[in-house]
Specification:
Helix content is 48%, strand content 8%. The protein is of the alpha/beta class.
């Protein structure tokens, strides 16, 4: 793998000849090479970084590639070959700026897998939104500003495969190659528009995202449409097959949909097969659930059908009329505040913050602070507006 060349990965010539990489990307797959790279990063005021994961190809996604760029250097670190734990110290160092694009997913991946902390972020997607650019995605920005067209087919690529083909290396390195120059342009534009403070705060918020179970993970089989309307035996089959699918997907290290799609699972729960022969005619099952593996599938169906039927967890409580009115009033205020600043509404306050405030119904600044929905910067800038919206909603 070392020494693989990264060719020009664009569909048309880059207008600026200086935008072309000066040399091939460095492939980092040994502790010695990683140490040398980290020393270069530690001596730099900033570096660009991105990741590629295999969420579409594994039971639990993992980071399969880390791309890093400095002026004159594009490096690709292989975390499947070398432990990247030493990188965590640099990511948490506030004096070194980490330039990323749409960093929330990458930060969550780093935190889930390695427990890394982050400081000193400059997110070029946030900057593009604060500047009102029409395209926020990296592909659109690179096409508009650098004449570079990325290969969209790579979005479903399996980054765990080795060796990586040349076109995958091309795609990966260009995720960070332009970011430092892009950040320079954006930083100047943000300063000219008086948005340095908003950029700093939004990036700080981005570093504070934390992994948490998705709604689908929390609800398990009961997230599927029609699951709560199943008869008792059907609910038992649904849960048993859901647990079997999770176990087999983990054994095979594949996404659950490659074992059995939701539609197939629900169909089996709604109309359980009466015998093994009928089960053998079911389509859409992983090969490990056929042949000798069919006995495991049939045992799960029988156990679910004949066992104690499970009771689905209660649905989330709906908002009361008063809570809905407060939430609507806060969203209306946020829309006006965003329009005044020429921002997208979520760059003022997030939906979760509005919902927390609507439920708590604080009456003064001390109570609003106690909700912890707004940080000190947001309280200073938006606290009065939030409380005013709540007062209008209550008619006081």
């Amino acid at each position: 793998m070392p020494g693989q060349a990264a060719k020009a990965g664009y569909d048309r010539p880059v207008p600026d000849p200086h935008a072309r990489p000066p040399a091939d990307a460095e492939w980092i797959d040994t502790a010695e090479a990683l140490h040398a790279l980290l020393e270069r990063l530690r001596a730099a005021p900033r570096f660009a970084i991105d990741t590629e994961s295999n969420s579409m190809h594994a039971y639990r996604e993992r980071i399969c590639l880390v791309q890093v760029s400095l002026p004159g250097l594009d490096a690709l670190v292989d975390p499947l070959a070398v432990g990247i734990e030493p990188l965590g110290e640099l990511l948490a160092e506030p004096s070194i700026t980490k330039v990323m694009h749409g960093a929330d997913y990458d930060i969550l991946c780093f935190k889930r897998q390695y427990g890394f902390r982050f400081a000193g972020l400059f997110d070029t997607m946030i900057a593009a939104r604060l500047l009102g650019w029409p395209g926020h995605g990296l592909g659109a920005i690179l096409r508009e500003h650098y004449g570079f067209a990325a290969n969209k087919k790579m979005q479903r690529f399996d980054w765990a495969q080795r060796p990586l083909p040349a076109h995958a290396i091309d795609y990966a390195r260009y995720d960070t190659h332009f970011l430092l120059e892009l950040a320079d342009q954006q930083q100047q534009a943000l300063h000219e528009r008086g948005r340095d403070d908003e950029m700093q705060h939004a990036c700080l918020r981005q570093t504070q995202v934390e992994p948490r179970p998705s709604k689908a993970e929390q609800l398990g089989p009961w997230r599927m449409k029609g699951s709560r309307e199943l008869p008792p035996a059907g609910r038992g089959v649904l849960r048993a097959l859901y647990e079997l699918r999770e176990a087999l997907a983990e054994e095979l290290d594949v996404p659950v949909f490659r074992v059995m799609a939701d539609a197939v699972l629900m169909s089996l729960a709604q109309h359980p097969p009466r015998d093994g022969a009928e089960l053998g005619r079911i389509k859409g099952l992983h090969p490990r659930l056929r042949g000798r593996g069919q006995a495991r599938l049939w045992a799960a169906i029988v156990a679910g059908r004949d066992g104690e039927p499970p009771v689905p967890p209660p649905l989330a409580r709906k908002l009361t009329r008063e809570q809905n009115e407060r939430f609507d009033a806060l969203r209306s205020w946020r829309k006006d505040a965003a329009a005044e600043r020429e921002l997208d509404p979520d760059l003022v306050l997030g939906k979760d913050a509005l919902l927390t405030v609507a439920l708590a119904d604080p009456r003064d600044e001390a109570q609003l602070r106690a909700t912890e929905a707004l940080d000190e910067w947001e309280l200073a800038r938006y606290g009065a507006g939030v409380l005013g919206a709540l007062r209008r909603a209550s008619g006081s």
